[in-house]
Amino acid sequence: MASSPTSATAPQSSGYTFIGLKWDVLPVRQYYNGAGERVGGARTALTNTYPDWSGVSGSTYRISSGGTTTRCPSLVRECPGAPRNDRFNDVGWAQLSNGTLGVTWTTSSIDEADMAINTRYVWNTGCVNRPNSFDLETVYLHENGHVAGLGHSSDVNAVMYPSYQAARCTLAQDDKNGIAALY
After folding, report:
1. Which CATH architecture has domain 28-182?
2. What is the pTM of this model?
3. Tens digits of per-residue pLDDT, 1-36?
């Protein structure tokens, strides 16, 4: 998710896209590594997104916590060594390039999705807009859409819109339509 300013694009229906990942085994289990964490309550902000993606009417998609880990997300380029599949879906913190709030790397040959949140930014929790910071749950909700297999949406109201608009911790109709179409 990028930290771009708000776009003046009008909302569209069916703005969702897919990235080519569709999980064969559900639920997706996600593991959290708190090393480098930049805000208290980060793991709770992550797990708060699970009911949103798992509870969409008409969808069989499910995601849940696998607990904590000390693994650096293996697909994340900023982790030591070459990116590799380790069959774990890990979430961690890394110094990513400026302009990127969070990123998710996926593979489909062996279903895996690893996520990193950028340590270069100031974060807050509680799904609120605060000056000079970004709401972590909003970014997790967006990145977990990628974990599910959704790409970016052209609907500015969608959580899957490619740039941060404001704190929003519920899925828009376009997000729900996308996950229901995929699963």
Report:
1. 3-Layer(aba) Sandwich (3.40)
2. 0.92
3. 765 443 344 444 589 999 999 999 999 999 999 999
